[in-house]
Amino acid sequence: MFTKGSAGTSRALIFIVLMIALIFISIYTNWLTPVRQQLSVLAVPFYKLTDIPHRLDVWRQNTFVSRRDLALENETLKTELLIHQRKLQQMAALAAENVRLRQLMNATDILQDSVLVAELIGVSPNPLSHTVVINRGASEGVFEGQPLLDAFGLMGQVIEVSEHSSRVLLISDATHALPVQVNRNGVRAIAEGTGDLNRLRLRHVSNTTDIREGDLLVSSGLGKRFPVGYPVAEVESVVRDPGQAFATVIARPMARLDRSRHVLLVFDSRDNTP
Prior knowledge:
Layout: H1 4-28, H2 33-50, H3 52-63, H4 67-110, E1 114-123, E2 131-134, E3 147-149, E4 154-161, E5 166-170, E6 177-182, E7 188-193, E8 200-206, E9 216-219, E10 231-239, E11 246-253, E12 262-267
Antiparallel strand pairs: 1-2, 1-12, 2-5, 3-4, 3-12, 4-5, 6-7, 6-9, 7-8, 8-11, 9-10, 10-11
């Protein structure tokens, strides 16, 4: 007779033999493939169930971000935005400067005189004195009285020369005056500064003088200070008062006195012709 202990041992041996047999059958035959597939389908919900703690932890980390982390991220984004804005501003400034240089080079193509490209490096802080400083001086052949232009018209003339820089008096300065003529008909006048960068005044223009709004004023060359034919200003208004001997004529400078940075110094080659 078998005891309870021997019966339990027999059942265990039978179970082990069955397990070994199933392993060999699974390895060397395809009999158990449908069973494995069904078990895999049944096991999927259990896999998902056991993965719930990990998913909850990931959700917690992504959702409940600390205030400190948000502040750090916000500060980083602000810094990156400022860097990109600075780069964008630099690109815009370079593009604008390229446009100005192209305009200046186009101006040199139509000039009959020799020119020297210069750059503004200083502006007078005195609002009553319209002077600028350029980065060319005696070492480059600059001389007192030399005309200065930008891509659009006459800006002024050199009044002081040092070795590597010069000071220029703008045509808008209240102490400056230059002879001009109406490009349409040759009528001569004197354009004087008013202390306003955007306004010139014509001196002693008779009420009967043929001058009108929109007329282009160019340098007449009288006095041999400025070469002939350079754009100076455009007439903005002509006021004729019968009770006055002279008309009030206001003109706007063609040169961009308040913004041009790259300019041209003119050497009148016609003075050197025999």
